[in-house]
C-alpha cells in the first residue's frame, strides 16, 4: 500500500504558472485531490516542481497525472539531502493522457533528508 509523503508542512515551488494566474493554475492545485484543477506551467522547455519535506523521507514510487495533451515527454526525479546539490535518481517517460501514472515502480528506495 502506498501513501503520499506530501503533508501540510511540505513546501512546494514551481518553475512558472500560466499567465501568472496563481488563483486558477497555481501550485496549490498540485495536491488538492480535485481532478477539475491542476498546476499549469507557462510555456517553455524546462518546467519543474520542487518539494521540501519537513523530515527525511524514503521514495519508492512516483505517481503523476497530467491533463491529456499536456504531458511532458520526459521527466527526471532528482533529490538532495539538505542543502546539497540535486542528484538525478531516475528518468521517466510519462504517457500523454490524463490517467494516474505510476512512474518508476521498481525505483530503489531512496532516502532524502529534509531541506534546511
How does this model look, in words?
There is one protein chain. It contains one helix and eight strands; from the N terminus they run βαβββββββ. A two-stranded antiparallel sheet has the order 1-2. A two-stranded antiparallel sheet has the order 3-8. Strands 4-7 form a two-stranded antiparallel ribbon. The longest helix is centred in the N-terminal third of the chain and has 4 residues, at 22-25. The chain is mainly β and 116 residues long. The protein starts with 10 loop residues before the first strand and ends with a strand. β5 (75-79) and β6 form a beta hairpin. It has one helix spanning 22-25; strands at 11-14, 49-52, 57-59, 62-64, 75-79, 87-92, 101-103, 110-112. The model has no long low-confidence stretch (mean pLDDT 82). The chain has two domains: 6-54, no CATH class; 58-106, no CATH class. This is Nuclear receptor 2C2 associated protein.
Amino acid at each position: 500500500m502506498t501513501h503520499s509523503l506530501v503533508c501540510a508542512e511540505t513546501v512546494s515551488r514551481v518553475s512558472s504558472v500560466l499567465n501568472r494566474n496563481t488563483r486558477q493554475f497555481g501550485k496549490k492545485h498540485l495536491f488538492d485531490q480535485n481532478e477539475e484543477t491542476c498546476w499549469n506551467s507557462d510555456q517553455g522547455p524546462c518546467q519543474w516542481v520542487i518539494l521540501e519535506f519537513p523530515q527525511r523521507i524514503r521514495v519508492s514510487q512516483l505517481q503523476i497525472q497530467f491533463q491529456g495533451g499536456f504531458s511532458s515527454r520526459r521527466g527526471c526525479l532528482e533529490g538532495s539531502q539538505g542543502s546539497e546539490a540535486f542528484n538525478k535518481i531516475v528518468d521517466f517517460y510519462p504517457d500523454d493522457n490524463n490517467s494516474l501514472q505510476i512512474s518508476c515502480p521498481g525505483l530503489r528506495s531512496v532516502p532524502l533528508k529534509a531541506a534546511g
